[in-house]
Design goal:
6% helix; 239 residues; mainly beta
Length: 239
């Protein structure tokens, strides 16, 4: 329960202060050559934001922590108003690390940014008047753990508003790792609409219900699941 409260607080905190990070996941293989990803940090406010970034141990829900294996640049990142900056992250597990999932928190803590001195000669103010201190947990894995998701009970119907409703179950049969996945709603002309569903844990099953406001039942031919990190197809099922 504590973790759910923390996640809701984090999302609210980031939205309130017009600061967010994309993507919100890592999901890379970190043995062999290691895993690399770039994160985009957005500042939609009218003030320059500066953050010091520090890796911390993960929640402990996975096989182990990877905060000692991570390299990233820059250590302090500055984002101008209505702008964005890039954080580069690389993680490599030590040789002999057992197969499974590992995690770390990236902690983003505000660093005050001085403003220009005022004409009245008063002391220089600080642009960061309300400090941010947030954590983003990223998860990676060791081993050739290819994603295996299963779709079952696929159904299509209409609700009272005559909107198309698609429902199905997703089961994660992947060995020793969770999967962050996207859902494609495939049309009869092979076009599709896509959405990022999120992460499904090891051995977990999720009930998925989608309301399609712009697609009719007759427009839809099936569902496809793709790896959010690589965008590769994992599985698909026809109606």
């Amino acid at each position: 329960m504590k973790k759910k409260i923390f996640i809701l607080f984090l999302v609210s905190f980031i939205t309130t202060f017009a600061f967010h990070i994309s993507p919100t996941f890592f999901e890379k293989r970190i043995d062999t050559g290691g895993g690399y990803q770039e994160f985009t940090m957005y500042n939609n406010s009218t003030k320059t934001q500066r953050f010091k970034i520090v890796p911390l141990p993960g929640t402990g829900e996975y096989k182990g922590h990877m905060d000692k294996w991570i390299e990233f640049s820059p250590k302090i990142i500055t984002i101008r108003p209505r702008s964005q900056s890039t954080l580069k992250v690389y993680v490599k597990a030590p040789k002999g690390t057992p197969e499974g999932e590992y995690s770390t928190f990236l902690n983003f803590k505000s660093v005050p940014v001085p403003e220009l001195a005022k004409d009245d000669g008063k002391n220089v103010a600080a642009a960061a008047r309300m400090a941010l201190n947030v954590n983003l947990e990223i998860v990676a894995y060791v081993g050739d753990l290819k994603p295996k998701l299963e779709i079952s009970n696929l159904k299509i119907s209409e609700n009272k508003e005559k909107e198309t409703v698609i429902s199905f179950k997703v089961k994660n049969n992947t060995s020793k790792r969770g999967i962050w996945y996207n859902i494609d709603i495939i049309g009869n002309n092979d076009g599709y609409e896509t959405l990022e569903k999120g992460r499904i844990g090891v051995g977990a099953t999720q009930d998925v219900v989608l309301t399609m406001k712009k697609m009719k039942k007759s427009d839809i031919s099936g569902i496809r699941l793709r790896d959010s990190s690589t965008h590769e197809e994992i599985t698909k099922k026809k109606l």
